[in-house]
Amino acid sequence: MDQPTHNGRTMSETLDSLPTPALILDRAVLLRNTRRMSQRLAAAGVALRPHVKTAKSLEVARLATEGHDGRITVSTLAEARYFAAGGFKDIFYAVGIVPSKLPAISALRRQGVNLRVVTDNLPVARAIAESGSAGNSFSVFIEIDSGAGRAGLPYPDLSALVEIARTLHDAPNIELAGVMTHGGHSYHENTVAGIRRAADQERIAVTAAAKMLRDAGLPCPIVSAGSTPTTMHAAGFEGITEMRPGVYVFNDLDQVGIGSCGAGDMALSVMASVIGHYPHRNQLLIDAGALALSKDISAQEFMPKAGYGTIKDSPVPELAVVACSQEHGFVGADAALPYDKLPIGSRVRIMPNHACITAAAYDRYYVVDSEQGDGRTVIATYDRVNGW
């Protein structure tokens, strides 16, 4: 059992003694989630490169990569430095690179970290090539837009792909790592059939790009795709070499609404205290507002009464945070609230809409285990990295 510590001191904490708001992680659920994804991709013969921007935690990343080769995905340079210092050596920084960040990439690569970058445009490819000619080394993916509409060369118009790839491949010290895409449009589907359509679009687009490069005599060793929904529900992964799911380690209301997981697969919650009763408006207040929960309403697309998070083990149906100010959460439901069951000072746990954004407000996870003892004892704290 991990011994929880904080500021170098041993703790003996329970959910009832934590300061609120606090970020709670159920390790039993976390382990089920990581093992399920690990087994799915291992059985498919596809490498797992988890996107660790969700947890931003060494402990969680180590669990997610257990039994695999340790490759990970990050979304900030702060994450890249943190995970590199923690022993991860194959790191994909999956946000479009700009020339001003190339020196920071080079510095980490000189420390023995295979920090890979991504671009989808020729001017940046030329800047990378120029830096390679000056003696710096890079490993570069080219991004394909398979339907999410965020970044990447838009499939099927891949007319710029070969020129970008050749600019990189012909430059000294540059590895053309391959092509990548993110099937983010899967987040707007809530049936297995819909998610499988998005997964197929994702796979077809990125493998078509890989074929175009190979047909032009260019290398494409890695064909990288992935989101949690498409990784969970894709009918097949033919032509894909690695997948990059992220939020699956924790899951959230958004993933429940989509159908990527069940309600029992949510590992993350926010512990808050009840600070006020307002029967005249059938609400109570908690000390977790927009900064503690975020104002992400993504789950409301398919769960309109999710609000800014729902109350775990609620005494009434569909009890949720219906509004937020900075430090206050307004909790309500259609049914009359049982104030006697939620007295002032009592604790509630809020299941977040979007785990990645909710967790970003905190510097640590208080870890419990719902399969050990009463599930309310803090058995560890996991740190996390924030910032950019």
Write the layout of secondary structure elements.
Layout: E1 5-6, E2 9-10, E3 22-26, H1 27-44, E4 47-48, H2 58-64, E5 72-74, H3 77-85, E6 90-93, H4 102-110, E7 114-119, H5 122-133, E8 138-145, E9 153-154, H6 161-169, E10 174-181, H7 192-215, E11 222-225, H8 228-233, E12 242-243, H9 253-258, E13 268-278, E14 283-286, H10 290-293, E15 310-311, E16 320-324, E17 329-332, E18 347-351, H11 355-359, E19 364-368, E20 380-383
Parallel strand pairs: 3-19, 4-12, 5-6, 6-7, 7-8, 8-9, 8-10, 10-11, 11-12
Antiparallel strand pairs: 1-2, 3-13, 13-14, 13-18, 14-17, 15-18, 16-17, 19-20
Helix pairs in contact: 5-6
Describe, in short, the structure shown.
The chain has helices spanning 27-44, 58-64, 77-85, 102-110, 122-133, 161-169, 192-215, 228-233, 253-258, 290-293, 355-359, and strands at 5-6, 9-10, 22-26, 47-48, 72-74, 90-93, 114-119, 138-145, 153-154, 174-181, 222-225, 242-243, 268-278, 283-286, 310-311, 320-324, 329-332, 347-351, 364-368, 380-383. With 388 residues, it is an alpha/beta fold.
Outline the structure in words.
The protein is built from eleven helices and 20 strands. The two termini are 32 Å apart. Helix 5 runs parallel beside helix 6. The protein has 388 residues and is of the alpha/beta class. The N terminus is likely disordered. The strands form three sheets. Strands 3, 13, 14, 15, 16, 17, 18, 19 and 20 form a nine-stranded mixed beta sheet that branches. Strands 4, 5, 6, 7, 8, 9, 10, 11 and 12 form a nine-stranded parallel beta sheet that branches. Strand 1 and strand 2 form a beta hairpin. It is 28% helix and 23% strand. It has two domains: 141 residues, Lyase, Ornithine Decarboxylase, Chain A, domain 1 (Beta Barrel); 221 residues, Alpha-Beta Barrel (TIM Barrel).
